[in-house]
Write a structure and sequence with these properties.
By secondary structure, this protein is mostly beta strands. Helices cover about 5% and strands about 45% of the residues. It has one helix and 14 strands, in the order ββββββββββββββα. Strand 4 (about 50-55) and strand 5 (about 60-70) form a beta hairpin. The protein starts with a strand and ends in an 11-residue tail after the last helix.
């Protein structure tokens, strides 16, 4: 990867807890990203989550590429299981990047389902999304994006991603930026989570489609 430092997380057997049946497992790996940040990556069983750190001379920027292979289904919802990254500040503010930029992603659908969108959510205080250099970032099949919930959530929609396919959103001169308000946080130990999950049609919509009810109007009997 052009000399970039790539950290591969292959998540296998580690018990998640009593709330899930036996055989459903989650594990994590902690890595140091540089620029004052540490990351812990989470996914279910055979899903894979990678990070590549792009060297950058700007001390206020931590530039990343991300690789995600979604393979697992949530046992409770029947939807694709999410992948998450917990970011932790490990250096004082003056040595910590205030923007984390994802310039490119490779997101693979191996869930056995067709996706109708993709959602990224920030969990925590003093963080928000911003789009930088929007040209090219919302690539097919998801060509539309919307910022929601005070810029703590971004949704990509406008198409479908079939099982076995890969989506590659990327920025031409920027990307998806996570703004971090270091000054607004008390202390030098800010922590937040980036959660990503595919979107699929609601079960009721799927049932209607399967029954042809959305396509053929019912006739009233006289």
């Amino acid at each position: 990867m052009r000399g970039k430092s790539i950290h591969r997380l292959v998540l296998l057997a580690a018990a998640l807890g009593l709330s899930l049946p036996a055989g459903h497992a989650q594990a994590s790996l902690i890595i140091n990203l540089g620029d004052g940040w540490q990351a812990e990556l989470f996914a279910e069983q055979d899903s894979v989550l990678d990070l590549a750190v792009d060297p950058d001379n700007n001390p206020d920027l931590l530039v990343l590429q991300k690789f995600a292979n979604f393979s697992e289904i949530d046992l409770f919802t029947g939807r694709p299981a999410s992948l998450s990254i917990a970011f932790r500040q490990i250096l004082p503010d003056e040595f910590t990047a205030s923007q984390i930029v994802i310039t490119e992603e490779f997101i693979t659908n191996n869930t056995g389902m067709t996706w109708t969108g993709f959602k990224m959510v920030l969990l925590g205080n003093h963080v928000s999304f911003k789009m930088l250099g929007l040209e090219g970032f919302a690539d097919p099949p998801f060509t539309e994006f919307t910022l929601l919930d005070g810029s703590k959530e971004v949704r990509f929609e406008g198409g479908t991603l079939a099982d076995g396919s890969t989506w590659n959103p990327r920025g031409v001169d920027g990307g998806l930026v996570i703004n971090v308000d270091l000054a607004g946080n008390s202390g030098d130990n800010l922590t937040f989570v980036l959660k990503e999950l595919p979107m699929i049609p609601a079960p009721a919509t799927l049932a209607l489609l399967a029954g042809g009810l959305l396509l053929t109007p019912r006739r009233r009997r006289g």
